[in-house]
Amino acid sequence: MSDIEKIQGRDILRLFRELQNDSALLKVYLPDNDFKYLTRIADIQTRKRITYFVIDYPEGDNDPIKFSNAGSMEFEFTGKDEVKYAFRSAAEQVFTKKIWLQLPPVVEREQRRRQFRISAPLGSRLRFKLNSTGYELKVIDISLGGSLGVLAGASKKNSKGLNRLQTKHVEDLELYFPTENEHIRVTIKGAELIRFKRNPRTKQYEYALEFKVMDSINKRRLNDLIYRFQREFLRKRLRVNA
Known about the structure:
The chain is 20% helix and 50% strand.
């Protein structure tokens, strides 16, 4: 079991101010419900000596009662130290596409590193070179800390060479995401190929890479994209279920 550190008192407000300034992603769960989504802290307000944090209402969802009656909502986020934090808070007010919640009395910090991971949009690719050989992965899922993918196109013929490589450090990788109106690229300066294994269902080798070195611009771009992809996924799911 992971060690848990409890953050309390004035450190709570300091932490939430940092989350707001960094536009950090929060994962929200409703108890006794499989609904979850990503959001950010839109504002922090103090009223009648009670401090609230304000989050965005999930786009495309038109059921505010679901949040008003949810009881304590569960939150998770990954801090700058790349470890998981968790807390609970109940919705005090839900209106104008915003949800107001009291700052929690306690935030738990887990000592194990963890990143949010979501499915990548269809057509996403990760390109890199090892020993002068180019490889391209079809990205299955993506997080701020790494990705999982399978070899695409001509890269498949080099799979044995990739699997036998002793050196797994990779430099100058490029993530490519096709969207409706643009093609987006994110550059990773350094990564490690941490494992590969054959999926018994698809019979394909899946490769997991951990991103080690990214500049602040590309890190922020990838963070924003993960949030955007998750919102697009939710919109599509809500249309299907409507």
